[in-house]
Write a structure and sequence with these properties.
The structure is a single chain. By secondary structure, the chain is mostly helical. It has one domain. Helix content is 74%, strand content 3%. The chain has helices at residues 19-41, 45-54, 57-74, 76-85, 91-108, 111-124, 131-156, 170-193, 211-235, 242-259, 267-280, 282-316, and strands at 198-201, 204-207. Helix 3 (57-74) packs across helix 12 and helix 4 crosses helix 5 (91-108). The protein is globular and about 50 Å long.
């Protein structure tokens, strides 16, 4: 006590219940820094610079604008989740969270970006479970629903011509495309007939959205995949038809997801060289893909990392 009877000043201490969260936050931040350093060490920066110098300024400007559009469209995934769950996080903050998690997802894998980063940032906004998990699940479903709608149509139309060395032929790819469409149509049908109902799968409750939201998922996701295909098509100097580039990109995306290689390093290039190298030449394909990684992966990651640490610093204050 002071002489005047008032309480003495003491430094404020965090409640014991909050201290584990602070430690976990610090550990998560250290892990993010380590992963960023790892990603930077695996980039051939001299090749990136050379690939960018080979492309005209107009091509780079168009590709950069399309990259910004794609990341903007992708934020619609979580905006659909906001509309569905009716949570109170402002739309602009939802878009920022989606951008950060997507940039980390592209470069460091879905476990870090799509899952850990997204759940942590939503927890920072005060969202309690199961809402963040529902938004995450809807976002992941949206991504692959749009993929299935586009890839299924392109495969059935014959835009992906497999090399003779591939174990699958054109007929098998058309059948795969039809199966993708059946899955997408089946999802919409389930949403139409089971709207608002819950399912229990191994003790986990799953609630499906209505058909309107399902159609929004497909439309926004398909739009994003189409913009991504347009980016690569522009960087390849429009040397082959756009649907063919989009089909190859979709094939490379699923190959990268299956192999679980962060950022699809080597997988993306291998698929494009195998399918488009004989037509465009290996050098042009590699230069276009290196520029694509720089504009769509590395540039947004730099912005997202800065935004993430700014959010962390503000939350601590």
């Amino acid at each position: 006590m002071r002489a005047d009877g008032s309480a003495a000043d003491h430094p404020r201490r965090d409640p014991p219940a909050r201290r584990p969260g602070r430690w976990l936050g610090a550990i998560f931040g250290i892990a993010i820094v380590a992963l960023l350093a790892w990603a930077a060490s695996h980039v051939a920066w001299d090749q990136v610079g050379e690939a960018l110098r080979q492309l005209p300024a107009g091509v780079l400007a168009t590709a950069a604008a399309l990259c910004a559009l794609s990341h903007l469209v992708y934020s619609g995934y979580d905006l659909i989740g906001k509309h569905w769950t009716r949570h109170a996080v402002p739309a602009r903050r939802v878009m920022l969270i989606t951008f950060i998690s997507y940039a980390f997802n592209l470069n460091l894998g879905s476990l870090v970006g799509a899952i850990a980063m997204r759940l942590r940032l939503y927890a920072r906004e005060g969202l309690a479970q199961p809402i963040p998990t529902q938004v995450l699940g809807l976002s992941l479903a949206s991504n692959w629903l749009g993929y299935g709608a586009l890839a299924g149509g392109l495969l059935m139309a014959g835009w992906l011509a497999p090399p003779p060395t591939w174990p699958v032929g054109a007929a098998a790819l058309r059948g795969l495309g039809a199966l993708m469409w059946l899955v997408v149509v089946g999802y919409v049908a389930v949403c139409a007939f089971a709207q608002g109902r819950g399912f229990s799968v191994r003790g986990h409750d799953i609630v499906v959205p209505g058909p309107r939201i399902a159609l929004m998922q497909i439309a926004i996701s398909a739009s994003n995949w189409m913009v991504m295909g347009a980016i690569v098509w522009v960087l390849l100097r429009q040397g082959v038809p756009y649907p063919q580039v989009l089909a190859v990109l979709l094939a490379a995306a699923v190959a990268g997801a299956v192999t679980h290689v962060p950022a699809g390093l080597g997988v993306l290039e291998g698929v494009f060289i195998a399918l488009l190298g004989p037509t465009l030449g290996h050098g042009q394909v590699l230069a276009g893909l290196i520029a694509y990684r720089a504009l769509y992966y590395l540039g947004p990651l730099l912005i997202a990392a800065t935004a993430y640490f700014v959010l962390e610093a503000r939350s601590k204050r």
